[in-house]
Amino acid sequence: MALNKKFSALTLTFASTLLLAACGGNDTDTTEASSEVVSSEVATGLQDGTYTLVEKNFDENGWKVNFTIEVANGEITTSDFDYVNEAGEKKSESDDYQAMMAEKTGVGPQDFIPELNGQLVETQDPSSVEVVSGATSSSEGFVKYAEELVAAAEAGNTDTIEIDN
Fold first, then answer.
1. Do residues 80 and 51 share a domain?
2. What burial class does residue 70 get, using C-beta atoms within 10 Å of its C-beta: 0-12 exposed, 13-18 middle, 19+ buried?
3. Same domain, yes or no, for 62 and 133?
4. Does 67 lie in the same domain as 31?
5. What is the span of the domain harbouring residue 146?
6. Residue-level pLDDT at 39
7. Residue 152's beta-bridge partner residues?
């Protein structure tokens, strides 16, 4: 009797697994289509202009974010995200910082900053920008700030956004 119950339970589990697998579909086409629609909706709602975001304070390493996007014909045409120090030097142009970070993480600002800027212009959607491996924190900050700039562009608000970091 106990063997019969185990066999019934096993059969029921197997049948349920088959049923769920058969009912599941490949939704990749739907996901891709909806992503395209979202990107298109973001781009068409943008008002032309230059939108800027700056951090007010320098971080513990002496850098703060300066981020500008330009919108023309409802599309992001340029993205200029970078960090600057008190002397106004850009992190993406610092060979010393590049060498130090690349040694620790395998990627430096000369690698990830142009990558992030390029992805935003290409996708037109901050949520579609992929994290650059080795620069996770910077990538996440980029996406967060890009979302704020896109919101400003949707509203047509060209006032500089100041982040009290």
1. yes
2. middle
3. yes
4. no
5. 45-163
6. 46
7. none
> What is the Cα–Cα distance from 18 to 100, expressed in whole angstroms?
53
Dump pLDDT digits (tens) for 5-28: 544 544 445 445 444 445 455 544
End-to-end CA distance of the chain: 69
Write out the two tokens for 53: 């975001």
Lookup: tokens for 4: 């019969």
Q: Say what the pLDDT of residue 84 is.
A: 98
Q: Please state, as a whole number, how many other Cβ atoms lie within 10 Å of the Cβ of residue 16.
A: 10
User: How many structural domains comprise the chain?
Assistant: 2
Closest CA to 110 of 102, 118, 122: 102
- Phi first, then psi, for residue 163 (nearest 5°) are -100, 120
Strand extents, DSSP E, the chain: 49-55, 64-72, 75-84, 161-163
